[in-house]
From TrEMBL, chain A:
Residues 17-159 form the DUF1468 domain. InterPro entries: DUF1468. It comes from Arthrobacter globiformis. This is Tripartite tricarboxylate transporter TctB family protein. The chain crosses the membrane at residues 14-36, 48-69, 109-128, 140-162. Keywords: Membrane, Transmembrane, Transmembrane helix.
UniProtKB/TrEMBL annotation, chain B:
This is Tripartite tricarboxylate transporter permease. The keyword Transmembrane applies. It comes from Arthrobacter globiformis. The chain crosses the membrane at residues 20-39, 45-69, 109-136, 142-163, 170-191, 203-224, 354-377, 389-422, 429-446, 469-486. Residues 513-573 are annotated as: Disordered.
Amino acid sequence: MTSLASRLKGRSELGVAALLGAVGALVLFDAARLVVPYSQSDPVGPKALPMIVGGLLLICAVLLAVNVLRGGRGEAEAGEDVDLTHPADWKTVLPLAGAFIANILLIDWAGWVISGTVLFWGSVWALGSRHYVRDGLISLALALLTFYGFYLGLGIALPAGLLEGIL
Amino acid sequence: MDVLSSLMDGFATALTPMNLLYALIGVILGTAVGVLPGIGPAMTVALLLPVATVLEPTSAFIMFAGIYYGGMFGGSTTSILLNTPGESSSVITAIEGNLMAKAGKAAQALATAAIGSFVAGAIGTSLLVVFAPIVVQFAVSLGAPSYFAIMVLSLLAVTAVLGSSKLRGFASLGLGLAIGLVGLDFVSGQARLTFGLPLLSDGLDVVVIAVAIFAVGEALWVAAHLRRTPLQIIPVGRPWMGKQDWKRSWKPWLRGTALGFPFGALPAGGAEIPTFLSYVTEKRLSKHPEEFGKGAIEGVAGPEAANNAAAAGTLTPMLALGLPTNATAAVMLAAFTQFGIQPGPLLFQNEGPLVWALIASLFIGNFLLLLVNLPLAPVWAKLLRLPRPYLYAGILFFATLGAYSVNLQAFDLMLLLVLGALGFMMRRYGLPVLPLILGVILGPRLEKQLRQALQLSAGDVSGLWNEPIAVVVYIIVALVLLWPLAARLWRARRPRTGGLVVAGGPAVDGPAVDGPAAGPAAAPFAEAPAVEGRHVEGGPVDGSGAEAPADRGPDAGRRRADATHANHGQEKS
């Protein structure tokens, strides 16, 4: 057990294998559910590709798990602003995702101008800016600009929500 | 079809004031966004897709042409002025480019990159004009079996050749194909993977997927590892070149172009291999080899031209066959389908004016780039100082806006978040993004060709290889897949050079901080076997890359170990 625990330590990539396995199983399960009446005009049917894809995913899941347990590791992506020397900073990512979710919840009810402001302001805050007022003004300006830009320039009416009638 | 007159018609369309304006907007937008760290040309096109869909198709594609070349150019500016390259295609440019900039020759580095890009772009686009119709002529005679084979080749080549781990490439491909399955089956009308949600029955919107994977995934990933110390940006004036610089640049430009175009046109070619080959070639041919490693202008001129020529080459299979070979082309192809345009060999016939206008605007965009970018370089350099919170918050903001505006559904935003999380995970664990995107886009078309092929043969499996081209393509597929195995057997017979014991870990420990020296050295080696493989297939390369790994002992060894490791998984799947 301890050896298993020590082998699992630092092997978060097994989660990827688990995900691949889950998706593969899901695809296969969904494909098995399809009823395929034999038809002359479509000998392959809708089942064939899902079966192949599901199989591919399951094989990849198993091989990846083996690979990871043997010490293989995926290469994290580098970039201009990416500093891989420190571990993932969840204190930034989670509030960022929070701002994103707030926008999803707000957009249809409160409208884009409000939800977009919340999204940008929240994201900037999550990413470490602490100029509350300046950021708020920039957020509001961006949301308003895009609202009118899309409406007047592209003919796309983003939801006005609570501010219906004012905008 | 008279190519020249079609092209002239294309110019006539593209040169109207309105379309010229769109080209200019595309070039400026493409460069500006391309310069911004963290945003590559693929993401630029993805972010602008929703907006462009309201434009008339011709104008939209004229703008995309500008964005395409602009984004490529922007990337090279970033890699010269910053120490850390963004896209894999500008990794090589960054080596000598950044050293030149540090040595106070930033202006010359930018100038040779800009003019080299222009030369390569012009030649590359001309080659596109020559070759695309030939490929089309050949392609219209192909039936479903051949198409199926070519698509299989294109998917496998991208998955198995690019990237450091084939296993992870196939995992990514599987995920992409699975995403592509969602929706109603187009023949039987049965719902697949919709979980009873009516919103899923039309399938997932490609725009949403592209924006999620490229923009949201990237923003979240960078947020998790945001560099807190400011990057060192080298100030620059207006780019210029002295007589000596011209003399040293023009040959590398031409050689880079010659290397870049064919590789870009091949499935799984991409820009990484030719830029690397160009670098190696220039280093060998240079009269100033001692300057390499201290900022040699040839080391910027050649790879940069190769990069742009590859970008033009990529458009050949994309326009002629409907096959994307890099991420940007994949997203552009998604744009075609957004407009209800069927990509494939009939594109030139059905949408002739649009395609030729697109090609003409590639020439125009290329020229505008030169005009705009030489004087604007200092402005672009300032863009690099944009505070990061604003940059990444902005990416999320516009990603949301773009994805939402397609259908005006909050549901799409949930998909955006879920797929964005997937993109984050893929970046964290080294799953390449390109196979996924290609899987999403090519998966449904692959299935269509498969079913058509077997329909014609009334279910007989031999219907998959009853065309000679299909057989040839399957042989190439086998070569692509078996080459690493053969190479391994060959190596196993000879005394090992060491390094094979170190299983697994592709340069996880190779710190990205100490810059281009480690990065590029690592990246191309994974490709080296592929380079030789191409040669066997009658590729245009003279195998000059094959000797390259020899002079870098330990790194190459470790790379090989990894490749071996990954192959292990690949033979079985």
